[in-house]
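Hello,

Our lab assistant flagged a job as stuck in the queue for most of the afternoon. It eventually completed. Since we weren't sure the result was trustworthy after the delay, we are filing this so someone can double-check. Below is the sequence as submitted and the structure that was eventually returned. Let us know if re-running is recommended.
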Amino acid sequence: MHHKLYGLQKMGFDRERLAERSDGAASLDSRLLRKVDAAFEGAAAEAVQALRAMPPDAGIEARFEAALLAVLRAAAAAPDLTRLCLVEAPGLGANAVRSKETGLQRFVELLDRELAAGRRRAAPPLVSEMVVGGIYEVVQRSARAGDVARLPSLADQLSQLWLPALRSQ
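-- returned structure --
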């Protein structure tokens, strides 16, 4: 069997296609990737909701902290989904990598908009990417360690780390 599977992979069949059922129903990987996409969308929606709840004159510090805490609370409230998104999904292949990149890009764009609104000019392109990427790495490490419940307690440390970079914009 292993030799047959290897031969199929060499001929260009990917894991997704091999997992498809003959009736055309979505594979397990496809269903999991839809959950990953929905989770990133949901986390971004939580951040947006937290930002909308802020007073109009709130500074970038308060806005960043509120959005970050909302995302961390959402992640902590769904530990299995958080683990799927941050730990398990990368093993689902190229589509999972694209889903992760698309999901993170939502946060980069959200932060870019917040920085631009606060300063009336665009921040350098890498600022938001570095902030979001750094937070993602810390959250992913916590999820891998099984520490999802403590994610909200990291909000203060993450804010202290990244707010100086955001203030300078």
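-- support follow-up --
The delay was a queue issue, not a problem with the job. The result is valid. Residues 1-23 have pLDDT under 50 and may be disordered. The domain at 30-167 is CATH 1.10.357 (Tetracycline Repressor; domain 2).
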